[in-house]
Amino acid sequence: RLQGVGALHLQFEHLKMKLEAEGLFDTSRKRALPLYPHHIGVVTSEKGAVFHDICSVVRRRYPLAEITLCSASVQGDNAASEIVDAIQTFNAEGIVDVIVIARGGGSLEELWPFNEEVVARAIYASHIPVVSAVGHETDFTIADYVADLRAPTPSVAAEMMVPNMVELYSSINSWAKSSGVT
Length: 182
Prior knowledge:
It is built from 8 helices and 5 strands. By secondary structure, it is α/β, with parallel strands linked by helices.
């Protein structure tokens, strides 16, 4: 291996090339998110601030959306299988319009579950659109490439998933005034 290139980085690049060759990253298969989601499924740890941050942004922007957490470890030995289970659970229940998988930033090792092939394939197999919101703006994972949409942070994911009610009301009021509707 090249000097200065770690084994995890090489593993990441190998899997990325493999999945790209299989078509898991094709933009033609990416689905649009619902414009007005009724129910958002969140896959993250119940212990971190990520779920709270997503809920705060959604409640501020679009309080009509319901949010359900399917808790999963976001680092460690069991994380990948728990993330897969959560994605599959949301798909089996069929109650959410969109799924966001999220965690805050961390080292390559801490973010590794989102680079696991089983997670990539679970995202790809999801019948529900998936948003990947893993890490900070400069972090990229395999999940980001497979997901229907990549958000640079969990809070930005929440902003991308829901409209802003204030802007909606303003648009409706402007339309009503210009149309003579009272």
